[in-house]
Sequence to fold (457 residues):
Amino acid sequence: MSKDKTFYQCQVCGYSTPKWLGRCPDCNTWGSLVEERQTKKISKQSLSQSRLVSLSDISKAEEERKSTGIKEFDRVLGGGIVDGAVVLIGGDPGIGKSTLLLQVLANIVDSSLKRSDHSQIALYVSGEESPEQIKIRAERLSINSSEIVLYSETLIENIINTSQKLHPSIIVIDSIQTVYTEEITSAPGSVSQIRESASKLMQYAKRTATPIFLVGHVTKEGAIAGPRVLEHLVDVVLYFEGDRGHSYRIIRTVKNRFGSTNEIGVFNMTDSGLVEISNPSELFLSERPTDVTGSTVIASIEGTRPLLIEIQALVSPTTFGMPRRTCMGIDFNRLNLLVAILEKRASLQLGNMDIFLNIVGGLKIVEPAADLGIIASLVSSFREVPIDPTTVFFGEVGLTGEVRAVSMAEQRLKEAAKIGFKKAVIPYSNKERLRNDFGLRIDGFRNIEGLVELIKF
Fold:
């Protein structure tokens, strides 16, 4: 017997209601509720239950990871691919998700051939492209492996049945928004279809210990479509970031059950595919100008990796009644906060100034350790005083103007010394706890008044 259930579900936030509404009461989006029908099978047989196991009786299994052959990708995965893991990769169209996964499949099958006499099959399921189109991309990447099997299918039951026959060592689903199940009558790409399809794939991955990569589309707001139901189901969530005007791409870890979060991997998009960049600090500083105002370098931490990033600020008198505040790469409210601190604590008259701030390279900085570098850039541009190009900044600034300590100070200084910097401006409390200065001249400040006084006419 079966029972049909009809409901209306928001395609933005996943809110469901038994009746249609013009606006979603959860996310306030107009026209986002779509009628969906779900068939539930009713069985009189008792469901099989898992056995109860005491925590002390479970033996710890060694976590084996499979290398992708790309060190930067292994970094964001936490050291490699874990058997049975479900990895979700999201990003803008054309940013390089399919290209990267095709390179990963080629590396895995090649490494398996080198380790043993028998080969491992990699299954690439595409619901958007034909095998001929994928072949064109593979030729551009110089990939021609008979162990990579292409499969154009969108029905999830057929995908799982084919996987059970082939026994692939890794599966790629490109993309999860195109697959569907016959158990639900809603259209592919709806919240119910995505949730049910991803759940079936997750069950197959855990049952057979087969790692599965899911490619996810993103919405206009930059979030993975679905809406966030996929991020709760999968083990690892990766976001592809990058500016269309630059050739490099950044993969950021948002969720990882097998490693640390907020790790990033840096790649360069070339004609022959994505090439990993082992030292991204040199890349971000390669075109940095010298002896110009408003330019500083901060030492930021992304996951476990220190990065040196350039901040550029432009402060100029406004020609309109209302001054403009524009920033790229940092939170807009954070910029307004730092400008207010400079006006109140350092007596800088910025109320009639247009302020533009940019994190070079298209990066997004969320940690407060960039505050000291942002303030130095603003003061430098306001007073038309260049900052020594061999100086690096980091430190958090409070509302009273105090400079607070940040974590991993020695790692930041070590990275700066390796790149060739000679001086560091850091919080005073961090300077007192240093065990090694790494050959740098270090200035510690308790508040921003001392830093603003240092950058003077």
In short: Residues 42-48 have pLDDT under 50 and may be disordered. The first helix runs from residue 71 to 77.
